[in-house]
Amino acid sequence: MEQAGMEEVLTAMAASVMHSASGMSKWSMADLTLGLYKLSGRHALEGAVDTIKGAPIVLRSELENILEWLQWAKAAYKRDQRSLASVLRIREEDIVTHVGTSDVKKPAYYIIKYHRKRCIVMGIRGTSAAHDVLTDLNTHCEPFEGGFAHSGMLAAAQWLLRNEGQTLQNVLKENEGFRLVLAGHSMGAGTAALLGLLLKETSAEEANVSKILKIPNEMITCWGFGSPPCVNFELAIASSFIHNVVLQDDVVSRVSPAALEDLRLEVAQTEWSQAFKEGSTQRQFVDMVHETTQRISALPITPPALAVFNVAKEKGLSKILSAGNAVVSQIAGKSSRTSKAGAWLSLGTAAAGTLLQAAHKRVSHGVQKSLSEIEEKTRRSDQQVAVSALAIQAGTSTTKTEVLLQRRLHLPGTLYHILRQLLPPGLSPTNVGGNGARTVTHTVVKGTDPNSRFSRIVLSNTIFSDHNSPAYIDAMVDALQCASRGTTILLYGSGS
To answer: In this protein, which residues make up the domain named Fungal lipase-type (predicted)?
Structure first.
C-alpha cells in the first residue's frame, strides 16, 4: 500500500480507538495516529499475526464448499432479481423473496430455493451502504441466550425473524427434507449468525426441533465471511453449526471495544526503538533523538520549554520517520553533531503542526459527511466499507475498561483462517503452477481448538482491504488452485 493509503488506515484506526473506551479521551487524534504508526512498525518488524490453532484444509471438496457459500453471501449485494439469479445461476422463479433496499437495523436480504443442494438459502447483505453502516451507532451488548450479543446486529436479526420467520417455515414445509443455510458477509454475517441462534430455539415438547421452522436443528447451518465479533465466548464456542471465515488481517473480524482497548494498551507500551530494525537508518535516527533528549533533559531548561520539546519530539519523530529514508538520511547525515537537536526540533515542531491539522481535517471530513456522501464513498470502495464498519463497531465511549474486557465479543462457531503467505525462497510461481506473476499463496486453516479465537488487531497495510468480498473470492480461488496442485503451503504455525 502507498504511504497515503497507510496513513488513511492508521487515521481510521485512530478514529475508532478514540471512541472505544474510557481511556481514549485522554489521547488526541494526532497522538493516536502517531502511536499507531509506531505500533505498525513494531508489528511489521515482529511479523505479528493473529491466527487460530488448526490444520490446513487439503481436500478440494471442502474448499469448494466454502467458496460456494462465499459466492452466495456476496450475492446478497445484488439489488435486483435478474442479476441475483444470473450470478447464482438459478431460475428467477426459485427466488422466494428479495429485498434489495435496506434501512437502519433492517438489512437487505433474499430467500431462495436451491434445488441442486436441497436447501433453502437466506442471504443477508452486509455493509455496502450508509444505512447498513448505521446498523449500530454504539456497540452495546444485551443479554442473549444465557450470554450476551451485539445489540445492533441482534436487532437486525430479530427484525428478519419477525418479517420472514413464517415465510421460512412455509417454504421449508413445502420443500420437505430441505435444509436451511444462512449466509452473509461483514455485518450480514453477524446478523446471519444471530438469526441462526434465534431460529434454533426449541420448545419443551421437542428438544431438538426448531419451534419456529419445525425442522431438526441439525438441518440449520450458517456461513459467515468477514463477520464482526457478535457474541460472548461461551456462546461462540457452543455454536458449532456456524462457520466463520476470516481473511488474513481483516480488522472487522477482530474489532470490538475490548480489542481496541488492548490495542491502545499495546500502543502505550511500545517504544519507537521497537518499531525499526536494529542498524536501519530509522533506528539510528531514533537512537540519535533519544540521545538528544537525554542531553537536553540534563540542561537547565524550564519545564514549559521541556514540555514543548517533548511534544515536538514525539510528533516530529513520527512525521520524519514516516516521510521515508531520504528525509531521515538527510537530517541524520548532513547535520552536524551540535546542530542536530536544533534542526530536528524546528523541523519536528513544524511537522507536528502539519500532521495535527491533517489528522483533524481528515477525521472531521470522514465523521461529519452527509448521508449521501457516505453512501457514494462506500459504493466506490470496499476498503471504505471496512473503514465504516470498523468505526461503527468501535462506537462505545464511556464503558469502564474492566467491563469491556469482561464483555469481549467473539466470532461464533467453527473458525477458518485464510492465510496469505509469501512464497518461500527457491519456490517460484512457476513451480507451484502459477502464471509467473504470483508472489503469494493462500492456505485455509480450519480451527481445531474451540478455545482458540481471533482476538488481536494486527496493524498491516491490508487490514481494510482484507475485508473486501472480492478479496475473499480471490484468496479462496487461489487456495483451491493450490490444493488442486497439491502445493498447499503453511509457512508459519497455525496458532500452535
So the answer is: 121-258
Label residue 273 exposed, middle or buried (CB < 10 Å: 0-12, 13-18, 19+): middle
Helix (H, G, I), strand (E, B), or coil: what is residue 401?
helix
pLDDT at 102: 86
Sequence-distant (≥ 6) Cβ neighbours of residue 75 within 8 angstroms: 84, 87, 88, 110, 123
- Domain spans in the chain, listed from the N-terminal domain onward: 54-248+412-452+464-485
> Could you give the C-alpha distances from 79 to 113, 208, 468, in angstroms and in order?
18, 36, 18
pLDDT, one tens digit per residue, over 243-261 is 999 999 998 898 877 887 7
Q: Is the pTM higher than 0.90? A: no
CATH topology of domain 54-248+412-452+464-485: Rossmann fold (3.40.50)
Bridge partners of residue 55, in order along the sequence: 446
What is the rounded CA–CA span in Å between residue 487 and residue 92?
A: 39
What angle do helix axes 60-74 and 469-485 make, rounded to 10 degrees? 160
Burial of 54 (0-12, 13-18, 19+ CB in 10 A): buried
Do 40 and 32 meet the contact criterion of CB atoms below 8 Å apart?
A: no
Give the closest residue to 320 by CA, choosing from 342, 291, 296, 289: 289
In 256-339, which ranges are continuous DSSP H helix? 257-268, 281-297, 303-323, 325-334
